[in-house]
Write a structure and sequence with these properties.
With 217 residues, this protein is of the alpha/beta class. It is built from 7 helices and 9 strands. The protein has a single domain, classed as Vaccinia Virus protein VP39 (Rossmann fold, 3-Layer(aba) Sandwich). The strands form 2 sheets. The protein has a 7-stranded mixed beta sheet, with helices on both faces. Strands 6-7 form a two-stranded antiparallel ribbon.
Length: 217
């Protein structure tokens, strides 16, 4: 799988996942079909119900994108982080009058991460299968669980597949989490009813082992 991925990346002159998304947003592109229409509504509904049921008070999203998906969220306090400075600037503009939301590029996040408080919930929505570099994938998983005090929600594919378009590689990520993250466990998998050409992702919900029934932050 890795050898095929390297061949695809070389053939397409693909530099890295971060450069791809910055270039895409800088050229006026968006976060993709999953962040619009019925898929966006479906994902937002799932997040909003979970936040209400679990009394979640704070959310950190790793990979906030262009902000369209976020516009459907109903969360008390939100921090969005993205590799694209252009996307972050766009989000700051869209939500400039919303004091409950703040945004950081990964460069800004790296500068403050040691002083950054965890959130009740961290989320990764349609991100993992765009992290084509192993080290980036591993860092993303590490951040997700490190900065979650109670819950982690991942919406992603969960099988191995390499594509001709070099910015996507599906990963069977749950065994990696099980092997490397020891203070969380998978409590629910929610099968996506809209699986088809536009998405093959499902929801995976993790809870910190020994956490309280409700968030208190």
């Amino acid at each position: 799988m890795l050898d095929r991925l390297k061949r695809v990346m070389k053939k397409s002159r693909f530099k890295c996942s971060a450069a791809y998304w910055e270039k895409r947003y800088a050229r006026g592109g968006d976060s993709g079909v999953g962040s619009y229409g019925r898929l966006a509504c479906y994902k937002a509904d799932m997040i909003n119900v979970f936040v209400e049921q679990k009394n979640v008070r704070s959310v950190i999203e790793f990979g906030c994108g262009d902000g369209n998906q976020l516009s459907l969220y109903e969360v008390p306090r939100y921090t969005g982080i993205d590799v694209s400075g252009t996307a972050v600037s766009k989000c700051k503009k869209i939500f400039e009058n919303d004091e409950t939301k703040k945004f950081l590029s990964y460069r800004e996040f790296s500068a403050v991460r040691n002083d950054m408080a965890p959130a009740d919930l961290t989320v990764s929505i349609d991100v993992i299968y765009h992290l084509v570099e192993d080290r980036v994938f591993e860092a993303h998983i590490g951040d997700l669980f490190h900065f979650a005090s109670q819950y982690v929600i991942i919406y992603s594919t969960n099988f191995d597949r390499v594509y001709e378009n070099a910015h996507q590689v599906d990963r069977h990520f749950t065994p990696y989490v099980e092997k490397n993250i020891h203070d969380f466990h998978l409590i629910e998998t929610i099968v996506n009813p809209y699986k088809g050409d536009d998405t093959m992702s499902d929801f995976y919900i993790y809870e910190r082992i020994g956490s309280e029934a409700e968030c208190t932050s």
